[in-house]
């Protein structure tokens, strides 16, 4: 929404349960009541417009927010960064930190890696997001999730043929198919940097192997400094 006196202090309309009607947009403060009312009017009109659609006759809204004015990726890390993603939320977050969102056709890992190859010389950092590992996990579809991961494996030579200095493969969270939701488990983390990485003894990539890997468990905030260090882009690592 655009306009005056818009306040984002509003609770989600997603009840986070199957078979439960969507909630109303509810203000958490008196200042946000006008904005919540505008959203409820819009939701009512949208439901009316979608009423006869057999597949999507409503919506749930989550994460009411305004631009938080985050520092840009360029200012924080000195990198000209691009984002390649199918899922809109990651495009939005990438835009908020100043990454250039790459437009492309398709939704497979091959499509995303092809978009990477076409813009390889224009940027020095790429964030590539694969969504369906998460969605298959939330569906409880273990075999489907495994096939998505196998699809990334099959497409990976497209990326390796570009000879990146540093390649990191990891996740932003775990989504076990047995739980059908995000969980607290550590995510596997692979860092490949042929000119600078110190190989450990692991020869496979997964939660158990990474649990015994040379990097151990560490906070995700250390990811970019590790990448910069292995790419020779830090004058000094740490203090």
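Sequence proposed for the structure above (239 residues):
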């Amino acid at each position: 929404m655009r306009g005056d006196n818009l306040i984002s202090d509003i609770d989600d309309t997603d009840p986070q349960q199957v078979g439960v009607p969507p909630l109303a947009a509810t203000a958490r403060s008196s200042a946000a009541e006008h904005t919540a009312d505008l959203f409820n009017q819009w939701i009512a009109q949208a439901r009316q417009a979608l009423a006869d659609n057999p597949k999507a006759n409503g919506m749930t809204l989550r994460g009411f927010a305004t631009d938080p004015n985050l520092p840009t990726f360029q200012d924080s890390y000195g990198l000209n960064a691009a984002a390649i993603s199918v899922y809109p939320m990651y495009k939005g977050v990438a835009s908020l930190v100043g990454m250039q969102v790459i437009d492309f056709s398709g939704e497979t890992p091959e499509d995303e890696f092809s978009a990477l190859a076409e813009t390889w010389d224009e940027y020095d950092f790429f964030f590539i997001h694969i969504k369906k590992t998460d969605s298959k996990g939330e569906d409880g579809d273990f075999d489907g999730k495994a096939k998505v991961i196998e699809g990334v494996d099959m497409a990976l030579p497209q990326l390796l043929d570009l000879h990146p200095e540093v390649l990191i493969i990891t996740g932003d969270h775990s989504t076990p198919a047995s739980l059908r939701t995000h969980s607290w488990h550590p995510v596997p983390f692979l860092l490949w940097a042929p000119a600078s990485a110190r190989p450990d003894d692991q020869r496979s990539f997964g939660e158990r192997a990474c649990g015994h890997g040379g990097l151990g468990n560490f906070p995700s905030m250390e990811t970019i400094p590790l990448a910069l260090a292995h790419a020779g882009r830090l004058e000094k690592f740490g203090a």
